[in-house]
Amino acid sequence: MHELTKRHQTHTKTFHGRHADIFRSARRLFGRRKKLKVLSFGCSTGEECLDLAEVFRYSDITGVDVDQEALKKAAHIHHPRISIMDSTEGNLRAHGPFDAIFAMNVFCVFPKSKQFEDISHLYPITHFDDGLRLLHRHLAHGGILGLFNAAYFFDDFSLFDAYQPEARGFPPYGSWMVRHKPDGRRANRNVVLFRGDELTEDEWIEMKRQDKTLQANGIRQEWINPETCAHLLHDVTLWRKIKD
Ligand SMILES: C[S@@+](CC[C@H](N)C(=O)[O-])C[C@H]1O[C@@H](n2cnc3c(N)ncnc32)[C@H](O)[C@@H]1O
Question: Is 20-174+233-241 assigned to CATH 2.40.10.410?
């Protein structure tokens, strides 16, 4: 019996179609290759696995999670190319190495992190780094890593040099979640674009509280200290592993 991998995000919210556009753009990077091994790391109740099975039409999809309630629901999915299981290193070894790994909305602790300017006590960068190192061990050479909504920048990953960016600016900023510098301090603020106005996140939350039907036109990210952040590849969602 292998131990579960260390937990990151505690929320299990997910929904069908959430990142289908990112999956499609990853699929294109494989050209004519059809039968791939694809991992949804943090699959929750499994909708993401169904999306992946639709986009990667001839591939085997593995979904792993640590949340037993979510896994219980995911177990109702019966699909010939989808296997859902506990997130253990043994399972990853047995089903990998993977040609593509997606860790969407996993390397964070949201919304808990929202109330802190410094999250080093709540979710230190070492935890993020360990999680990415785990995925690195099970990603094939030349494989694609999809990352969305992480609390830190991939540029600050200790094995950053083993990767090259594959898709930039898609979706804009690569995250709507605020990100942090390696010491845990907040690196940016989100500015919500709404009918020609620019609102702080708090202003937007208050407006939404009064009228749930409102839809923002987009989000812009503003650096707290542009000198230390502006050079980062913050808008990359898909990375290719180029070194073991
Ligand atoms: C917000 S959900 C995201 C679900 C899906 N990836 C999506 O984007 O819609 C985050 C999931 O990551 C899972 N998670 C956290 N730590 C994990 C770990 N070490 N291994 C696998 N899953 C993990 C949580 O249990 C949760 O189900």
Answer: no
Protein residue with least CA distance to atom 23, ligand 1 = 42
CB 29 within 8 A of CB 55: no
CA 204–ligand 1 middle distance (angstroms): 26
How far apart are the CA of 132 and the centre of ligand 1, in A? 13
Could you tell me the pLDDT band of residue 1, with boundaries at 50, 70 and 90? low
Separation between Cα atoms, residue 147 and residue 131, nearest integer Å: 12
H helix runs in the chain, sequence order? 20-28, 47-55, 68-74, 89-95, 125-138, 201-210, 226-229
Cβ of 146 closer than 6 Å to ligand 1, yes or no, is no
Residue with the smallest CA separation from ligand 1 atom 9 is: 14
Q: Which helix (H) or strand (E) holds 143?
A: strand 139-148
Residue closest by Cα to atom 18 of ligand 1: 7
Give the domain ranges of the chain. Answer: 20-174+233-241
* 5 close to ligand 1 (CB < 6 Angstrom): yes
The mean pLDDT value of the chain amounts to: 94
By C-alpha distance, which of 145, 157, 128 is closest to 23?
145
- Mean pLDDT value of segment 174-188: 91
Model pLDDT for residues 63-110, shown as the tens digit of each residue: 999 999 999 999 999 999 999 999 999 999 999 999 999 999 999 999
* 87 close to ligand 1 (CB < 6 Angstrom): yes
Q: What is the mean pLDDT of residues 189-208?
A: 91
Ligand 1 mutation target, pool 50, 106, 108, most atoms within 8 A of CB: 106
